[in-house]
Sequence to fold (373 residues):
Amino acid sequence: MDPSLVSGNTGFGAELFGELHDSAPGENVFISPLSVSVALAMLYNGASGETRQAMTETLGYEGMSPERINDANLALLQSLCALNPELALNIANSLWARQGVQFKQDFIDANREHFAAEAAVLDFDDPAAAGRINGWVSDNTNGKITQIIDRIPADMVMYLINAIYFKGAWDTQFDGKLTREMPYHLQGGGQVTVPMMLQTRYFSYQESGAFQAVKLPYKKTNVGMYVFLPKEGTSLEALVNDLSEESLGEWMGQFGNREGSVSIPRFKMEYEEKLNDALSDMGMAVAFDPDRADLSGMSDAHLYVSEVKHKAVVEVNEVGTEAAAVTSIGVAATSANPNPPFSFIADRPFLFLIRDDATGSVLFMGAVYNPAQ
Fold:
């Protein structure tokens, strides 16, 4: 596994999450950093010049050749898809090209070889074309996400799409008989009543002056959900502002076995956002500029990135977690026990992420301000 790619993906994901979190204060956020990284890595194979340089810096690819980036992504995807069969993790990629537009074979081949991307040519003017793409999305998210494209604009010539589906049972499930309706304290005052699940046992746990954190492992895998709860008197905003590749690596090294009780809400979340502004703020603005974008590695036509859309859903309950995410990149033509038992009660805004500890890859990341929303 190439640590440079994982490090770059983690840093990119943390920065993107921070941008989206800050753009809608107090609102729930849930994304798959891996899905966005993979979709943009496919687009990277078609970028040249200033656009490729901007993507290199934004995605954390400095010091890596295009060949190394592709090989590292292939190894990462193969490793993730070979996780224990107790865990359902499906990662799929596809390219959808407008009929009559010529794309370079090297671009198509690179994404087929390293991302196992399905490539199809469609009549984008056919009203059924969007339905076919959405059908692929639904099939590859187990029906959790059924639509990513509303309609296909006349200038759109290609969609690059990544889909991720995840389902894992807790290594130790929550007893539904212990779930109770309890108050959840909202940002800025007020509260809602939510079903709170409870476990008391030994956990992988840590605490600092800023937060408590606990790991909830999934059955027979290296994958776990890490829940970070800001201490009373601190805020989720402060925690997210501290989130980075460096801080996350530091936090992950400080967990230890400790007895305690954990209460977290049972919740569902749906999130959908256009990522153009966030990615532009992170350094990729040139890719969205019709006059400056350079996607000449993809086609001789003058192309630019029209939109990067992301949709993600998650459900957390007593049995485990089910989550899915889709990233769609639309390319247009001018004209992607010494310690006492602890008590961990996530009854206020908290951060969570789902991480594969074997590779260090963050599969999903979320901020829960209102689990009843």
Q: What stands out?
A: The mean pLDDT is 95. Residues 8 and 60 are 4 Å apart (CA to CA).
